[in-house]
Write a structure and sequence with these properties.
The structure is a homodimer of 347-residue chains.
Chain A: E1 2-8, E2 11-16, E3 28-36, H1 39-47, E4 55-56, E5 61-68, E6 80-83, E7 86-87, H2 93-96, E8 107-108, E9 123-126, H3 129-132, E10 134-135, H4 145-149, H5 154-164, E11 172-176, H6 180-191, E12 196-200, H7 204-213, E13 217-219, H8 223-233, E14 239-244, H9 249-258, E15 259-267, E16 275-277, H10 280-284, E17 289-291, H11 297-309, E18 321-324, H12 328-336, E19 343-346
Parallel strand pairs in A: 11-12, 11-14, 12-13, 14-15, 15-17, 18-19
Antiparallel strand pairs in A: 1-2, 1-4, 3-5, 3-9, 3-19, 5-6, 6-10, 7-8
Helix pairs in contact in A: 5-6, 5-11, 6-7, 8-9
């Protein structure tokens, strides 16, 4: 089958690899209808050391169940399903607590771990299929597919940032980053009732999409200038919640700069740094909280899916470029040089 | 009046300074009955650069109101009161939200800031007295004074660690540090219903006091050995909540090592470091939350005071050495070399 492999920084290739196949009785194999490229894939695209053997990549997809293992009971051939970016058993203590991304028997796609392959491919093996995949109940030609694809990662990830930062009515929010996750964080903050949503980003068109999604203030300035601007907008205080959707150290530092005393930084951008400021003046004296991590996507889908199906939640607008699967390398280039916000791949 | 001044590392002196006096209509002056030395004073005692002019020190006391400013209406001469380690106006947005330690018109004692003097003295000026001081309703010779003195800092600080780490029934807890704040954190965790409380510390007598306060497991090992031991006690997982009551980087690293995925580090030890590990493997992938800061003491006193008054909360046991005020330098030495857990100073 056709799949996307990464060999190192700026070296993504579309190649033929062995077909995905059932390996365990709890597996399913799905034929992928839509996959996409994530901001976190870009971190690897920009920095991964070169390898001789390509590594499969991609962790977002929806598709059609083609084959199921002998223990799979809740799915059948032909079901149109979405997969979260991690698989989970739905019954361990972490899953029962809603932290499916820490499932005791789970794992992540697209990193060659645990034999789970990447999703930027024609097909994928899904471990623990019954408790991982979610049936969508739409047809293969549904106009909702792009919106439903955001359930695999970016929408629940933006939602996670808002949830851990306890966004609600009367909360002021700053979203850092105008990528797909940042824009979904705007959607999530609005949906949870935030009255003030300040979006920080560098791209006029993305900021405007953020305004459509509910941002009340747009801040194109960065670094100290950006911090100053947000503070001006909030009588010097900063906001109760800051949703850090980038992952670079300067974004975290910006978050510290714009968070109000007693406030929470909900960090979902995968950190590209090991240490950062957490000392007395930056964080402690003002009782700042830092939270976040990989979203427990499976736990959030039930809440978000109905609003995509009824058309009220338009997260699918984050896709601004659609390419055939074999053009994935072009998709990476387009996202890396900011020509595209988020690239969808189709068969 | 007699007061304690710090001139630099290992240089604390007891000296005569001008009497505390009313400077603003909202001030009160109290005659101090009991003050004490804090672990955070020790950080300064160990590391403060030398100065020519001594700086007043101490931020915990209870005493008798001697004089009030013309705008003070809720207090009168002779009232026996406790003061939180910070003063606050009780009416700004932060105070109304319960974050009195970030009061817009407030400040901290014992750092020479805003004219508020140190509490290791015969008397102190208390700004914003009406909304800062709490009347205790006991007599000057009450046996409860040592317990009531813990309301100034260590008990609400331990409580704060537990509150921000969302300790409750079914929560497992690790407390790092067997100083007075760590022991009060054990009290707080027990009081909030934690079923498992693991106390990490190096002093057998303090650990035993921790057991009296409710610790279920005592771990004298430190560093990697200590982390390994806590993980053994928790089937490899660590605990939901970790209350970091030390403030050194190795204590924070230990906290990361013993916190369960999805768990919260409630940090109340004043950090003696500016940067620390917050990256993908130490924190992010497991959805660890870091919270905490200076406790909003004033906001917690109403909840904790009744249990000290009725004798059910025995936090006063943390005091194991009582010295006359002029012996404060000896008290610092005793705490610095761990001969004393917490030193009380009396007139």
């Amino acid at each position: 089958m056709r799949a996307t492999l990464i060999y190192g920084a700026h070296d993504v290739r579309s190649e033929e690899i062995p077909d995905a196949r059932i390996q365990s009785p709890t597996d399913a194999v799905i034929r992928i209808l839509r996959s996409c490229i994530c901001g976190s894939d870009l971190h690897r695209y920009n920095a991964m050391p070169a390898t001789v053997v390509g590594v499969s990549i991609g962790h977002e997809c929806l598709g059609i169940v083609e084959e199921i293992g002998s223990d799979v009971t809740g799915l059948g051939r032909g079901d149109l399903v979405v997969s979260p970016f991690s698989y989970s058993d739905g019954e361990c203590d972490f899953c029962l607590e809603g932290l499916t991304s820490s499932c005791r028997h789970g794992g992540f796609y697209g990193h060659g771990r645990d034999g789970a392959s990447g999703m930027q491919a024609e097909a994928a093996r899904i471990p623990l299929a019954d408790t991982t995949l979610v049936k969508l109940g739409v047809a293969e030609d549904s106009a909702l597919l792009s919106g439903l694809l955001t359930l695999a990662d970016v929408l629940p990830t933006g939602h996670h940032a808002a949830v851990v930062a306890r966004v609600g009515p009367r909360t002021s929010v700053t979203v850092i980053g105008d990528g797909a996750v940042g824009l979904c964080a705007v959607i999530a903050a609005k949906r949870l009732g935030a009255e003030r949503i300040i979006l920080m980003g560098r791209h006029d068109d993305r900021l405007e999409l953020g305004r459509d999604f509910g941002a009340t203030d747009l801040v194109p300035e960065r670094g100290d200038e950006g911090v100053k601007r947000v503070r001006e907008l909030t009588r010097g205080d900063g906001t109760h919640a800051v949703l850090e959707c980038v992952g670079h150290l300067d974004a975290y530092e910006q978050a510290l700069g714009v968070v109000r005393a007693g406030g929470i930084i909900g960090r979902v951008g995968v950190p590209q740094y090991e240490v950062g400021p957490i000392g007395i003046n930056t964080m402690f004296m003002r009782n700042i909280t830092l939270s976040g991590g990989p979203a427990p996507v499976r736990a959030y889908i039930d809440e978000l899916l109905p609003e995509i199906l009824d058309g009220s939640l338009l997260a699918g607008k984050v896709f601004d470029l659609s390419l055939p699967l074999e053009s994935a390398p072009e998709g990476y280039r387009a996202m890396a040089n900011r020509r595209a916000l988020k690239v969808m791949l189709t068969p």
